[in-house]
Amino acid sequence: MSEELLINISPMESRVAVLDNGILGEIYIERHHKLGLVGNIYLGTVVRVLPGMQAAFVDIGQSRTAFLHVNDMQREPRPVAEDKSKAATNIKKDNSDNSATLETSTDSLAVTPPVVSAQSTEVVPVSKTLIQHRLHESQRILVQVTKDQLGSKGARLTTNISLPSRYLVYLPSSDHIGISQRIDGEEERTRLKTELSSLMQTVNLKGGLIARTAAERVPVDKLEEDIYYLLQLWRTICARRQEINHHQSSELIYQELSLPLRSIRDLVHADTEKVIIDNTQVYEQVRYFAKEFVPFIYDKIVHYTAEQSLFDVHRVEDDLRDALKRRVDLKSGGYLIIDQTEAMTTIDVNTGSFVGGRSLEDTVYKTNLEATHAIARQLRLRNLGGIIILDFIDMLEQQHKDDVLESLQAQLTQDYAKTKITQVSELGLVEMTRKRTRESLGQQLCEPCSTCQGRGFVKTAETVCFEIFREIMRCARTYNSPKKFTVVAHAAVIDLLLTSESDTVADLEYLLGRVITFDVENLYTQEQYDIVLD
């Protein structure tokens, strides 16, 4: 599969499109006045500790306080004592320390990890350590953003700092060496783990490392370069923290790379054939960055200078518009209906105009198989996360159900986000989750409709007419003085009152003994109206 990266830069925003065989697979958008926070490291101040939620709110200088759960904090060692009362005393004493704050000594260059000894200590999961014993209000704490602000929710934080490079992720507060699950070969996994362990001892790097997927078959000298880069970066962060004025409530310690550089670091791989950039300054920045950190892509970076928009040439703008619609048409004639709510996202599969050829079961089976490809693409393109319910068309044969699930799992292997799928339920539903770290495409580009307030529908003109009749009768009973009622409403409502409902208006005038007149207000929505008493 060939892949291309398109980087579009404008004064307002940066956009990166990932094309799979010429088809838009993913889109990343970063507004210059509203940069993403994920990956940023802050020295924040604890504003409030909530024992009932085992969480705390931390001020990191944003419009909303950020959220830190106890499960996102570092683990602590606990002495094992035969005397339970003595152990409890020791735990209380340990928790009174500022255990959530990172050790800033640039000599060790790491957060001190738990010391695990089979004889004297055991590591206690954070879930068993109460947050009120670890944090207090006004405490300064080093945190990293793991999720951007989503809707009314503040950013999500962790004290487990992680610093990514091209091939590795450095974990200062861990002592673990991990290998990406996407690297399958046992021999390669063993090689990486052995070489990383040796390199860490050579450079005296404290903490943990994770080998990213891009590290597969990468020579040891490249891994060593990455380790030295991460070592220097952590030194800089530690020094920056030492310089912070203690009177400031929050301070940005480290800011993640810009979107174009981030995309080069995280998205390019062996199948990437070309990176096309339409801005001269960013083109030079990306080339310099690629030469230092991703040299194999250096010669594939192209500067786009034509007059026609880069995204228009590759039909990205059209695909973006389609990605905001509820309905997604399939080539066979079937279609998907995608609805995103606060709690979950639902995707409904329909045969539409596809009638098949052999039998109903065969038609349903082929439609569901085709839908798995479209669903996987839409999840990536729209960046849908959280709980997702897939309503496939009911299938009778178990083999067909298994094939559809297998096809869906195969398509999701290309997804960078972590996913988990359940079996097909008795109702023909498939439940799945997809890790969410930023806003979906719809949330990023759209806002709730000002007319329907996000419901997706409005009252019919007939319903509004009946509401107006009831309101006129209520006003007539309450106020005896008015000689005339003037109804101010949307044109569609007034037209209905003067045509289909004209007899009802005449009966109401006779019953109340008052004149009813009408005025059109084009600025009103269909649900808005006023009754003026004259």
TrEMBL record:
InterPro entries in the cross-refs: NA-bd_OB-fold, RNA-bd_AU-1/RNase_E/G, RNase_E/G, RNase_E_G_thioredoxin-like, S1_domain
Compartment annotation: Cytoplasm
Keywords noted in UniProt: Cytoplasm, Endonuclease, Hydrolase, Magnesium, Metal-binding, Nuclease, RNA-binding, rRNA processing, rRNA-binding, tRNA processing, tRNA-binding
Any Gene Ontology CC annotation: cytoplasm
A family per Pfam: RNase_E_G
Record field: compositional bias (Basic and acidic residues): 75-96
Biased composition (Polar residues): 97-106
Region of interest (Disordered), ranges: 75-106
Gene Ontology annotations of biological process type: rRNA processing; tRNA processing
Family per similarity comment: Belongs to the RNase E/G family. RNase G subfamily.
PANTHER family: RIBONUCLEASE, RIBONUCLEASE G
Protein name: Ribonuclease G
